[in-house]
Design brief:
With about 350 residues, the protein is of the alpha/beta class. Helix content is about 40%, strand content about 20%. The strands form two sheets. Strands 3-2-1-4-5-6 form a six-stranded parallel β-sheet, with helices on both faces. A six-stranded mixed β-sheet has the order 7-8-9-10-12-11, with helices on both faces. Strand 9 (about 275-280) and strand 10 (about 285-290) form a beta hairpin. Helix 1 crosses helix 4 (about 145-160). Bound molecules: manganese (II) ion (MN).
Length: about 350
């Protein structure tokens, strides 16, 4: 059935309430999840640019730096990584692409406490963090392919203009979270919205080049070492890649240089579950999980205190890469038996 992108809005009443909060507010702080990606930063900048175009005061805050390949997004130079001692009165806090306070980082509590209104726009597995918070308007829909899509619908619903800068941010958000239209969440509406954004000024070739063909050389040196760690389990259904502190040391690469390394494990024909385990500093481990069909990796990640989507999830923990690998394999077996 052909349907308009506006049919994606399931809770119209909440959508209107968020629109009113954005219209009525004057001081805004916008933030997103730690280790931000193109959807997190793209949604945040798009909404923030639209707000400041309306004459509102906007502070952009992320705990972690903006990865190099998304620095080209218009407005990234306005993003700060430290907060003023006190937020202005009547601050509206907008949390993008993040549905749990913990994932904003160490300043989460402070931010939420000081805000008068908290707007949450997200599409990750909802753990209900904002459900009972009186000042929160949380629009969380796992069926939406990108938070950028929610921002776009919101702007259109309020009839706020989408200029070239905003379109570039939103297009990048959609490209990032659909894996350039390859992931299972890619729908007709995703193409429809992308098409609209290109007409509004987003340049697909420029953006794709920046996102996917502008990596520092050290990333490829690190990738070379990481690929040599490939291990497969369960008749080739599970593939694991690892990056150790020593690999980061010898290549000079940083944590952010590993974005989508998990994709190299996922692209093996037999693989259902792909695992990338990253240990930048000894004992601190970050895990990315991907699946192709039936394994819900958000539930695997949840067992380790993480979360995400059905086909893409992650968590951080402490331990060695080997211990963490074994624990994940055990958890997959606990939930699904041996994959075959
Ligand atoms: Mn997202």
């Amino acid at each position: 059935m052909a349907s308009s992108r506006f049919d994606l809005i399931k809770d119209r009443e909440l959508f209107e309430k968020i629109g009113t909060a954005l219209n009525d507010g004057h001081n805004f702080v916008l933030t997103c999840h730690v280790r931000p990606d193109g959807d997190a930063i793209g949604s945040m900048l798009a909404l923030g640019t639209a707000l400041s175009d309306k004459g509102k005061e906007v502070i952009f805050y992320t705990e972690d730096p903006v990865p190099g390949n998304i620095e080209f997004l218009p407005g990234t130079n306005a993003i700060t990584h430290s907060l003023p001692a006190e937020l202005p009165d009547n601050t509206t806090l907008c949390i993008l692409d993040c549905g749990e306070p913990r994932r904003i980082g160490s300043k989460a509590e402070e931010l939420i406490e000081q805000a008068d209104v908290v707007v949450v726009l997200d599409h990750h597995l909802d753990n209900g963090s904002f459900a009972d918070m009186e000042k929160a308007l949380a629009y969380i829909d796992q069926d939406i392919f990108a938070t950028g899509a929610l921002v776009m619908l919101l702007l259109e619903n309020m009839e706020w203009p989408i200029n070239k800068a905003i379109a570039t941010c939103l297009y990048s958000a959609i490209i990032t979270d659909t894996g350039a239209f390859r992931h299972s969440n890619t729908t007709a509406a995703a193409f429809e919205m992308a098409s609209f954004l290109v007409e509004a000024g987003a340049d697909p070739y420029f953006i794709a080049n920046r996102l996917y063909q502008s990596y520092p050389e050290r990333r490829i040196h690190l990738l070379g070492l990481v690929l040599r760690t490939l291990e497969v389990f369960s008749h080739g259904k599970i593939a694991v890649l690892q990056a150790t502190p020593q690999m980061f040391r010898v290549t000079g690469a940083k944590a952010e240089d590993t974005e989508d390394f998990v994709g190299f494990a996922r692209c093996i024909d037999s693989v259902e579950v792909a695992i990338f385990i990253r240990e930048v500093h000894a004992g601190h481990v970050t895990v990315s999980l991907r699946s192709k069909e039936y394994v819900n990796v958000a539930e695997i990640a949840k067992a380790f205190g993480g979360g995400g989507h059905f086909h893409a999830a992650g968590f951080t923990t402490t331990g060695t890469t080997v211990d963490v690998r074994d624990a994940i394999l055990k958890e997959i077996e606990r939930q699904y038996g041996e994959l075959e």
